[in-house]
Every structure is written in structure tokens, then in C-alpha cells.
Write a structure and sequence with these properties.
This protein is mainly alpha-helical. The chain contains 11 helices and 5 strands, in the order ββααβααββααααααα. The longest helix has 25 residues.
Length: about 270
């Protein structure tokens, strides 16, 4: 794991989780298990890609909150690479929507205002409705079982109250939905939107009672897809995204502002 000092939102150093100590190899040098996986990863990935993946992991896991500054020199020194690959990784992270590059100031984890998050949720709802319609027409029984297994993971995480595990399974579920839709351009756009919304989604799912509700919505989506009901499947996904947007608002709204909303809601019934 990357261990370095990155500046936080107020400029103060922010230590990251420590790197596991190196282990001396015993016996022959033939790779096996995790070692072989690591070697395969290095062989199949460029240095900037490896740096990008590590920084992306830290950002998406909440290790670097919105507004944090990424220190190019510190990252390069800690990883034992030159600044070039780090700089390339920053550009890739900017393209994916996770960081912003400010001239003469540096690189920062993006801070998404609520107004922009609203726009992203609305766009996601439209895209997800299309995905639901497409999959209700094209998904195979194996696809349905695969998606159901992902929701099983979400249910286990919800039972433990593990928001991080739930969010990872949630992202994986929706990403696979879009992959199965078979539209490469849509997948690239969708992944950027998901990255931009990540911090909001973590706060949304951390609300009390949100995880079981979200899980039930995902089960309903699978049921509609499995039943081959394009309109219903599309609507289930659209409603799920818009419900997530509403939960986001409740999660980010100051406590004093939530009571009037509840009162006005009851009066309107």
C-alpha cells in the first residue's frame, strides 16, 4: 500500500495507512499465489497506471477526502519512481473525475457541490433507465445469477453495517449492469459519473436504515430484468437513482433543516 504524506484540505500533512513490511523470499524464486499476481500486474500495467490505481484506491476508500492536496514529490519518493509517472497518473485521475489540477497550486481531490451532484444523479437516472430497458431484453439467466450474487454481497455487508464493503459491492453491481448493456461509450461516461459521486454516496449509505432499503431496491431491479420487463426494469433503475439522490440530500442537509422538511411532508399528505 502507498505510504506517504499528502496534504489535507487545510494544507496539513495527512499520513496514509502504513505499507506492509517486505518479506524475504524463502526457497526458489518461482512466483506463486499473490506474488505471481503482483508480478502479472506489473507486467501488464504501465508505471503511471500502477500509481493511478493506488491513488484511486485511496481516494475511493475515503483515505483522501474531498479537497485534499496530492503531493507529487512525496508520492514519487515513497513509490520509488520519478515524478513523470506520478504526473501522468494525475492527468488520468483528472480525466476520470477524481482530482482537479490547478495551475500554480497543485492537484486536489475534487470537491463536488450539491448542485452538481444533483445534475449527476439526474444524468445517471436517465442512463440507468436505458441500461435497465436494454438488459431486460438481452440478459441471460447466467447474467441474472451473476448480478444476484453481487446483491448477496451487499446484503452481507448490510447485515454487518459495513458501509465500505456495501459501497464497493454497490459500485460493482452497477458497473456490471452497464458493462452488460454493451455500450463502450456509455461505460466510460458512467464510470466518470460514479467517481464524481463517490463521496456523496458514502455519506448517503451511512444513514441509519439506508442499507436495507437500498438492497431491496437492487433486488427489485434484478426481478424486473429477469422477468424480461423493459419498461418496469428501466423505471426501477430510474427510481432507485432518484431515491439515492433524495437520500444524499438528507445526508448532507444540516440537522436543523431536516425537521421542517419532515413537517411539511406530513402536512401535504
Amino acid at each position: 500500500m502507498l505510504k506517504t504524506t499528502l496534504a489535507g484540505g487545510n494544507g496539513a500533512p495527512r499520513p496514509l495507512p502504513p505499507k506492509a513490511p517486505a518479506r524475504r523470499a524463502a526457497g526458489p524464486a518461482t512466483p506463486s499465489g499473490r506474488g505471481a499476481d503482483a508480478i502479472a500486474l506489473v507486467r501488464s500495467s504501465s508505471l503511471p497506471t500502477l500509481v493511478q490505481q493506488e491513488l484511486e484506491r485511496i481516494i475511493l476508500s475515503g483515505g483522501l477526502p474531498a479537497g485534499s492536496k496530492l503531493n507529487e514529490a512525496a508520492i514519487a519518493e515513497r513509490l520509488g519512481v520519478s515524478r513523470g509517472p506520478v504526473r501522468e497518473a494525475f492527468r488520468a485521475l483528472e480525466e476520470s473525475g477524481l482530482v482537479r489540477l490547478e495551475k500554480n497550486r497543485g492537484v486536489f481531490v475534487r470537491r463536488i457541490p450539491v448542485e452538481e451532484a444533483d445534475e449527476i444523479y439526474e444524468l445517471r437516472a436517465v442512463l440507468d433507465e436505458f441500461v435497465g430497458r436494454r438488459l431486460a431484453q438481452t440478459a441471460t439467466p447466467n447474467h441474472v445469477r451473476e448480478l444476484s450474487a453481487r446483491v448477496d454481497r451487499m446484503e452481507k455487508a448490510a447485515a454487518k453495517g459495513d458501509v465500505d464493503a456495501y459501497l464497493a459491492a454497490n459500485v460493482d453491481f452497477h458497473d456490471r449492469l452497464v458493462e452488460l448493456a454493451g455500450n463502450a461509450k456509455l461505460l466510460v461516461m458512467y464510470r466518470r459519473l460514479v467517481n464524481e459521486l463517490h463521496l456523496f454516496r458514502h455519506a448517503t449509505l451511512a444513514q441509519g436504515g439506508a442499507l436495507p432499503v437500498s438492497t431491496r431496491e437492487h433486488r427489485d431491479i434484478i426481478d424486473k430484468i429477469a422477468a424480461g420487463q423493459p419498461t418496469a426494469a428501466g423505471r426501477a433503475l430510474f427510481d432507485h437513482v432518484m431515491a439515492s439522490r433524495e437520500r444524499m440530500h438528507r445526508a448532507t442537509m444540516p440537522p436543523a433543516a431536516t425537521a421542517p422538511l419532515r413537517q411539511s411532508s406530513r402536512k401535504s399528505r
